[in-house]
Amino acid sequence: MAEIEEHIKRVTNKLQQLLKQYHALQKENKKLKDALKEVQQTKEQEAEKINQLQLQVNILKTSVGQMTETDKKVFEKQINQYVKEIDKCISLLSE
Question: Whole-model pTM above 0.85?
Fold first, then answer.
């Protein structure tokens, strides 16, 4: 009988240790997910910043007249994309 009680105590102790580890891992997982979200947001912000800076460079090149034909085509595509997005926004607002 004492053996069974001792075995139950060991199993109970191991189960408690596993639960503690599980909770610790859950906390760590939440922290890592939060950190990942923050990094992804920063990445998106930086990508937007890069796009804005590239657009400014293209505008400056256009104003100075130093754009190559390839740069002009890329710039025109960007402008057309912005115009399409603006048109979509206007159509959504008018509904």
Answer: no
